[in-house]
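PROTEIN ENTRY
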Amino acid sequence: MTQKKLDRRHFLCAAAAGFAGVMSLRGQGRSAPNVIVVLADDLGYADLGCFGSAIPTPNIDKMAAEGARLTTFYSADPVCSPSRAALLTGRYPARTNVVNVLMPNDNVGLSSSEVTLPRVMKDRGYRTACVGKWHLGTKPDFMPNRHGFDEYYGVPYSNDMNPLPLIQNTNIVQTTCDQETLTQRWTTAAVDFINRSKDGPFFLYLAQTAPHLPLVPSDDFIGKSGHGVYGDLVMEIDWSVGQILDALKANGIDENTLVIFTSDNGPWYQGSAGNLQGRKGSTYEGGVREPFVARMPGTIPAGTVSGGLSSMMDLLPTIASLTGASVPASTDGVNIWPLLTGTAPFIEREALLFFDGWQIQCVRFNQWKLHVARYNTGPWTLDPPNGRANLPLPRPELYNIDEDPSEAYDVATEKPQVVANLKARVDQLLLKLPDQVRSAWRQTLAQPIQDTPVGAMPRRNID
């Protein structure tokens, strides 16, 4: 759906929707709503049944049928650590200094000075827990218990990194995890937290380690999907969601709990981005557009579908607004509750930037996406002899994402005013971003542009 400028009436309706959501809950005599965010790892845009996959995902599909599905939801970065930083802070990863995939021995991570979603919820009186993959730094100051989580049970980074210890709060309880047990471990821990916190309110962040490589489903799911080992693992994630929904019903808190399911970035070697170009590590749609489903019976209307522009950074202001918590002034996200409830077709917001590390590569505003730079080598390939560089495109590429989600038809020559408008928006946003971003952009502009960066599409005019 094309996002046009809001008139006054629509703007006021959208601005009031978050407040109305809170008031409607109070009017129904409900206590503060519980919130669960389930984040898959490397799940593709088209890996769920409700997004077109043949892999059986009945529980998530039912969530979508009973709630809302956002079809234009973006991560802030095409890889995991920055995307998770954006989710928890509501800010561009460049503001948090988490701009790359963190390694086990890195000395950087998400600073304990950041205002995070669990900290905001905890200040509101919520009990908070993190279960599963962390991947925002391994030093004590970077771990979940320093960011507002009362409880933590999980692994410190991706399941392909070694050693892979199992950690409970600040203690290592197992030096090496059994890969095939991880999804079921996280599910058991999540259900246990729900059972212990049923009198609420609570916030649960369940960060699945799957379907990131290595693909190791439990024995109960091997061969069950009919779509290979990757499908088996996606099916097991769906089972996990079903267990969580069952626990909510068993504890009588189903209608007072917002459950969100999404992924951190596009698919890696396996998985599907559907008709979207690009994969994990790419700022094409396939690398940054994520499946998104939200459910809260009686509050989110069943069968809601929205193509309004939304981002991982929007979760913090949306959840904070819903629960009556304070929204940090530093957030880059916006409250997307009107999209979830179908009370507005889109939300007025600033242009959305797409980064890879410190590097700006694309900008999205309304239906338009402008590519301004691209690396000279693809993701997960060896660097060329002269190093990997973010190169300015010889001519920026403009795509109408509403009409051309696969980014196949560059319309920059037909829409020079749109190109100029988006470039001006990048320049304005640069003034608000950290020095490292501005420095990286100057370095990009100083690169020679005679070489075509990797992945550049043939330019085709629309007939």
